[in-house]
Design a protein that fits this description.
The complex is a heterodimer. Chain A is mainly alpha-helical. Chain A has a domain of about 120 residues. Helix content of chain A is about 25%, strand content about 0%. The longest helix of chain A has 20 residues. The relative contact order of chain A is 0.06. By secondary structure, chain B is mainly α. Chain B has one domain. Helix content of chain B is about 75%, strand content about 0%. Chain B has 5 helices and no strands. The chains are: A mainly alpha, B mainly alpha. At the A-B interface, helix 1 of A face helix 2, helix 4 and helix 5 of B.
Chain lengths: ~240, ~190
């Protein structure tokens, strides 16, 4: 074999590696690491934060969001340097970002807010399976876990939605004035039409089968109240 | 060598069709192009790079070392072509078709080195050699001898193009890996 030829594992190959490494290093230093940028920053204009109205306006200044390697500062603390309103939210678990932080999302802004996706790419992308909905006061259970986000979050409203059942599920006419609004007594999120297990209220016998009574015999006014006095002199436990 | 001269190309095309099929399946399943930083994107990038690196290191080792004498040079060249093609193809899929900054430059160099490899393979196979890769001599004064001398000259020029591009590509790739670890893994 002709060993005078240029090759990867030869002295000349090592020289080239060394020269290439120096060249990349110089470009890296001179350009302030711009060569690592995976894509353009978002150019959507918002309110001025520290004189900056869009991420694109600070494009090329990597150090604005990326800490040098000798620093223990992470990216998240550089995010909240400008986004002070988010820093304030994080201290209050009643707010969206405060609740998310409590759910272990703390310091992982990019989980929902990716960057470098191009000038028009969305800055908020939520991946539902990874989103800690449980920490926001409304765990997604049963059918709530499988429906489309927009079924509850119509018109892209994602914050401060009411969490009581009746806000989304209006009481049918048959229920109004008849049943209490503690829906979960009879309904579950797995099956809204779940069969109602009538409580064996007197505790001694199975009222339903024992009495052959009609609904109205025990519930003369509405179904949240009951009485036994249609047939008995007293209610159970009374003299 | 001549008898099986295209075998590695066909095996490479088969492997690329298979990998391309898996890629298409992932695109179809997720309705999106796999991002470079995702599980699949990273996987094809890392495996592709290891293949490319293996290509170079093992082939060079076999070529230069007095100790590593395992396998014939002809087979090693076929292996070099296979890993070079399939590895480069995987790295190209890893790019998620964005060619920014250093990563874009490396993608470009990858395409250039593959094309250069094809040219080199063509020149290489025009020069008769033993299975060990040792070039066979032929009389210098005959027309065949002159054509051969021209091919040899072209091959040495080609080495000066192919090898430095390859080395620059690998050094760049290490910088790219460093950047990915620094910005994405360590979250700086």
């Amino acid at each position: 074999m002709d060993n005078s030829r240029l090759g990867c594992l030869t002295r000349s190959g090592l020289y080239i590696s060394f020269l290439a490494a120096i060249a990349f290093f110089i470009v890296m230093i001179v350009q302030g690491n711009v060569l690592y940028s995976p894509g353009a920053l978002n150019s959507q204009q918002g309110k001025s934060l520290g004189g900056v109205v869009s991420h694109a306006a600070i494009g090329g200044h990597c150090e604005a969001c990326h800490a040098p390697f000798w620093s223990s500062t992470g990216m998240a603390s550089l995010c909240i340097n400008c986004h002070t309103e988010i820093a304030a939210e994080q201290t209050d678990s009643q707010t969206l970002h405060g609740a998310l932080d409590k759910g272990g999302i703390n310091g992982l802004c990019w989980t929902c807010h990716p960057e470098h996706g191009g000038t028009n790419a969305s800055l908020t992308l939520i991946n539902p399976p990874n989103f800690p909905h449980n920490n926001l006061g409304f765990p997604l259970k049963g059918k709530h876990a499988v429906i489309r986000c927009s079924a509850c979050h119509a018109n892209n409203v994602y914050s401060k939605l009411p969490i009581d059942c009746l806000s989304c599920h209006p009481a049918p006419a048959s229920h109004v004035g008849q049943f209490p609004t503690t829906c979960e007594t009879c309904h579950t999120s797995n099956d809204w039409n779940a069969t109602f297990n009538h409580p064996k209220s007197c505790g001694r016998v199975d009222c339903l089968n024992h009495h052959r009574a009609t609904c109205a015999d025990c519930h003369p006014s509405n179904y949240s109240e009951s009485t036994c006095t249609k047939c008995h002199r007293n209610n159970p436990g009374q003299d | 060598m001549r008898r099986n001269s295209s075998r590695e190309i066909w095996i490479s095309i088969l492997a690329m069709l298979l990998i391309g099929g898996i890629y298409a399946f992932v695109v179809w399943q997720t309705s999106t192009i796999p991002v470079s930083s995702g599980l699949f994107g990273h996987l094809i990038g890392i495996i592709g790079f290891v293949l490319m690196l293996m290509t170079e290191i093992l082939y060079s080792l076999r070529k230069r070392s007095r100790l590593a004498r395992w396998g014939s040079m002809a087979n090693w060249l076929q292996f070099h072509i296979f890993t070079g093609l399939v590895g480069s193809f995987m790295v190209l899929l890893h790019s998620s078709w964005k060619f920014n900054g250093l990563a874009g430059l490396i993608s470009l160099l990858t395409i250039v080195i593959v094309l250069s490899g094809f040219i080199g393979r063509y020149i290489y196979t025009r020069i008769p050699r033993t299975l060990e890769g040792v070039e066979l001599e032929s009389p210098a004064e005959t027309p065949q001898g002159l054509a051969l001398a021209r091919m040899r000259k072209m091959l040495s020029v080609w080495y000066v193009v192919h090898i430095p591009i390859g080395i620059t590509l690998f050094v760049g790739a290490f910088f790219h890996v460093f950047g990915a670890l620094y910005y994405a893994t360590l979250l700086h």
